[in-house]
Design brief:
CBS-domain; 42% helix; 6 helices; alpha+beta; three-stranded antiparallel sheet
């Protein structure tokens, strides 16, 4: 089994110039916990729901409501994302993805081919693979 068999192809992405509000809205709308961050077609980072929660719960944001609104529009994805995330190729064995996720204690991996983001594989995808394997 290969990563490409279980990854989500062409994932939704954010730009480093997007703000915290955009990240929060994308996560809420699509009920997803992580998004690759792409700049001019190149993967430059990953942002997770944890990154967003931590930025939103900072002491600066816990001030008056007007400051919350102001900061949601001023905090940029580039300032809260994890730069240069660990990646995997689509033709790698699924076991390699599972090992990387386990070793680094992360919830997902951007899938990159020829320098271009082609998908994302997450813990949920790995559980789906396990269920498929157990059914056979």
């Amino acid at each position: 089994m290969l990563v490409r068999d279980f990854m989500t192809p062409d994932p939704l992405t954010l730009s480093p110039q997007d703000n915290l509000r955009a990240a929060m809205e994308l996560m809420k709308t699509h009920k997803l916990r992580r998004f690759p961050v792409v700049d001019q077609g190149k993967l430059v980072g990953i942002i997770t729901d944890r990154d967003v929660r931590q930025a939103g719960a900072s002491s600066a944001v816990m001030q008056e409501r007007r400051y919350v609104e102001y900061l949601l529009d001023r905090i940029l994805v580039s300032g809260i994302m994890t730069p240069n995330p660990i990646t995997i190729g689509p033709d790698e064995p699924l076991e390699n993805a599972a090992n990387l996720i386990l070793k680094h204690k992360i919830g997902g991996l951007p899938v990159v081919e020829d320098g271009r983001l082609v998908g994302i594989i997450t813990e949920t995808d790995l559980i789906s693979a396990l269920i498929r394997f157990l059914k056979n």
